[in-house]
Amino acid sequence: MEEDRTKEALKAEVIKARGYWHPFHQGLLEHAPEYLRAYLDFQDAPARTGLLEPKVREFMYIAADGAVSHLYASGLSRHVEMALEAGATAAEIIEVIQLTMLTAQAPHDMGLPMLAEEMARRGQPAPPARQSDIRAEHEAVTGRWPRGADLALALTPGFAQAYLAYERIPYESGPLPRKVKEFVRIAVAGAPTTLDRETLREAIGAALDAGASPEEVAEVLQLSSAIAIHTCTGAIPALMNVLDRKKEER
């Protein structure tokens, strides 16, 4: 049948483009092939431009899947493997993981300025920040100063110094070019599971300052948005399982 041949051709195209065949692909092929076609065009569009190296595209998926706001383990494992196959080194992937870990700054970046505002409303002045030389060193290495860092140094100096030290590590010693470091931050902050507006804006600006083109930044955002398909990754196999069970019950 023509319909069967069309579906087989689509399946072959998905496998060629994505490198694997997942149960959710099968479910969409059987029940919504037009949606599977749209998914393929959406998911594979960044690869067709050639703007980013294949391994860098995989880094974006590792970041979005590995962020604590998502933690999609099977996708993370798959994209680590695909990054290695694309020529990435273990050191590069470790740096991606370290940069992804910087989502840990979100509670401080958002919460501590709020704490300072609430203290001011109550007439409680913030204590002075300590060891201002840390700020100059940190900005020289990373190009940024976390929004909550001053208050963190004043209230919890031990924790703040430890956090700032490990934030510097991937900037001081990692092998990735500076713009790719910022791409990782864009991928995490812009992911549908994170949506950290201020960090996203900051990382976009830093990427442009590091020589990234607007087209490259737009492509990183496309890659980051692609994790929305994980709704289908989970829901379509669940639907298929229920439908199969109901067939057996008849």
Which residues sit in consecutive blocks of at least 5 with pLDDT less than 50? none
Q: How does the helix and strand content classify structurally?
A: mainly alpha
How much strand? Answer: under 5%
Rg from Cα: 22 Å
The count of strands amounts to 0
What series of H and E elements makes up the topology? HHHHHHHHHHHHHH
- Average pLDDT score: 92
Given the structure, what is the number of helices? 14
Termini distance? 28 Å
The coarse overall form would be elongated
Sheet with the most strands, sense and barrel status: none
Helix content: over 70%
Walkthrough of the structure:
The protein has helices at residues 2-18, 23-31, 33-49, 54-66, 73-85, 90-100, 106-121, 133-142, 149-155, 157-173, 178-189, 197-209, 214-225, 230-249. It contains 14 helices and no strands. The chain is mainly α. The mean pLDDT is 92. The longest helix has 20 residues, at 230-249.
Supply the key terms.
250 residues, 0% strand, mainly alpha, 14 helices
Describe the protein's topology.
Layout: H1 2-18, H2 23-31, H3 33-49, H4 54-66, H5 73-85, H6 90-100, H7 106-121, H8 133-142, H9 149-155, H10 157-173, H11 178-189, H12 197-209, H13 214-225, H14 230-249
